[in-house]
Amino acid sequence: MSAHSVGTRRINLAQWSFLQWAVLVVGVVHIVWAVVGWTVNSSFGIGEHAHATPVAGMDYNGWHAVAGLALFTPALLAALRKSWSAWYCLAAGIGGGVVVGVWALFSDRVLIFTFPNHTTDAIMHLLTGALLFALVAVQTALDGDLRKTLGLTGSGRPASIG
Questions:
Q1: Which of 27, 40, 69, 160 has the fewest Cβ atoms within 10 angstroms?
Q2: Which sequence ranges are marked TM in the entry (predicted)?
Q3: Burial zone of 138 (CB within 10 Å; 0-12 exposed, 13-18 middle, 19+ buried)
């Protein structure tokens, strides 16, 4: 295989959709928030030893910061394509937004972690999930079709990548 047979695809930021830019911004903001949270409280204690420090409304410790990095770092990759951004928003909105948010509403313990300000955390998770869903809704309105936003053709097959 020669070097000429390997295709290169340049990232053309001028052609990015609203959703791609939004996912990039949301990802960067949450990554910075997680790094700041980790800097403020890098504790990896568990149970009653899992102390948390509020940072911009969210309880942070080492565990929560790592979880934030794990959830939002993929946004940087997802932003490269509109359909990836849409699927990312739906998955992160459900998992990191709704599921964790509802759980935190009713309990100050998540697995082995204790979060004393769990109601505030729950609200922040639910708001983040709602934001991610809203971003998909806006892009769908711009595209005129959810299938187009998700990268699906009328047949339900993925649209061509090229």
A1: 160
A2: 21-40, 60-80, 87-106, 122-142
A3: middle
Q: E strands, the chain, where?
A: 53-55, 58-60, 109-110, 113-114
Question: What DSSP character marks residue 97?
Answer: I
Q: CB of 103 within 8 A of CB of 96?
A: no
| Residue located via tokens 């000429």 | 4
More confident residue, 6 or 78: 78
